[in-house]
């Protein structure tokens, strides 16, 4: 909405709409003239609700302020005239209130069906620059319509931040319920969908964050849980001791960063996760096919200090018994170690819940990369050249790509959403716990798998080519290299193909791209100062940049 009485849709289409007040605009958005609904992604799901994106002139014309006075809650006060208009017209707001992404609805009835409209208020920061790109919110209305339509067509109509949309995409692809006819009463009832998350479940105590009521019931508030009390499956943040650099490594000229494409999405592919509650058991026999968390002691396993340990996010060897997600212990077994858990919380009801989510994200990512001139048919050299300029190829597609990546990481993060707001007290439940998709165990399994996948490739380079990383941060590994390009570093077979099982250059999820190159002395100085070169190999702080 540009404030002129016209709505910009995809393909340059202009739709005239009422501008008198917000209730009239919502009624128009739900009517046949607008035709804004998106088709459902699953036969048991719901059609997508219309999204109205308000630029600053449109917001002003509807009587909305350009800045929110409540900077803490980022919500319009309940006594604002626009909210009074909605209430008078019998429209309701969700518990989120009227913020940057308000949902406005009327309760569904057999005659009216679903009536719900999503707004995105741009002057209030609806499009986060870390996810959508620096200047996306300031684009002309027609370009913004093209960008958001591409995202909505390939993934889902945005329903909030990219993190919220990532979580909503899981539910849209695997709805919790379906309509089923009761043979006794011959009426339609709501029934669970097999393979979906159908109801909220409590986490196992080791899986729960410190604020959770399950933890508050076990430990005093000031208690710091130890590895044998809490599951710590997080992404890598490791640097090698500079004393362990060899003479051959110090003869290198550059530090080269390799970044795994869509690492967390790739980890979700074909991953079996728990669907229902966890059951406690003692002295279980380890089963790599059963999702859950296990208490085991891996501290005595051999460890090469030139590689991060696969069992801890900090990369140091475990010091005693600790809780591990199934993929981590399965990798220990894969390495030939005997795994003997003493205790476990297991989920006998399980399935590949995230498969459809991964597939849709992968297809959206690959289609957008193709728009940017990067395809799977490119040779390694062509791929590196295309990646060097791909964001300049099509700035709108580059913004869509940024949003797709943020949707992956944000969606995984939302599986363990922590409490928010100054009024929260530890030990009290918070709203996110009411969602079937509040599942810290699934987040742990994905991150565990991503970390194991990284280690497997690093171990292959270590054993087959004698290459060891100097730093790892999440999905980025830094190696010392005789030249500035990944081609100067990555080993190949005698017939010129990439080393099987190692890092492979390419566009597909799980393959790697060039993250950045810096001089050798820069990298060694970072290690001496205890800083992680992988964080800064691009020339800026990758984590602060939302990567």
SS summary, helix count: 16
| pLDDT averaged over residues | 95
Say how many strands there are.
19
Q: Characterize the biggest β-sheet.
A: 5 strands, antiparallel
Low-pLDDT regions: none
Helices and strands: which structural class?
A: alpha+beta
Describe the strand arrangement of the main beta sheet, using strand numbers: 9-17-18-10-19
The proportion of strand residues reads: 15-25%
Distance between the termini: 31 Å
Shape: globular
Cα radius of gyration in angstroms: 25 Å
Description of the structure:
The protein has 547 residues and is α+β, with helices and mostly antiparallel strands. 30% of the residues lie in helices and 16% in strands. It is built from 16 helices and 19 strands. The chain has helices spanning 22-29, 56-61, 81-88, 129-132, 141-154, 162-173, 213-216, 247-250, 263-268, 326-334, 355-371, 380-393, 395-414, 440-465, 520-528, 533-536; strands at 6-8, 14-16, 51-54, 92-93, 103-109, 113-121, 177-182, 187-192, 237-239, 254-260, 273-274, 279-282, 292-297, 321-325, 343-346, 350-351, 471-473, 476-481, 512-519. The strands form six sheets. The protein has a five-stranded antiparallel beta sheet. The protein has a four-stranded mixed beta sheet with strand order 3-6-5-4. Strand 17 (471-473) and strand 18 form a beta hairpin. Helix 10 runs parallel beside helix 14. The chain is globular, with a radius of gyration of 25 Å.
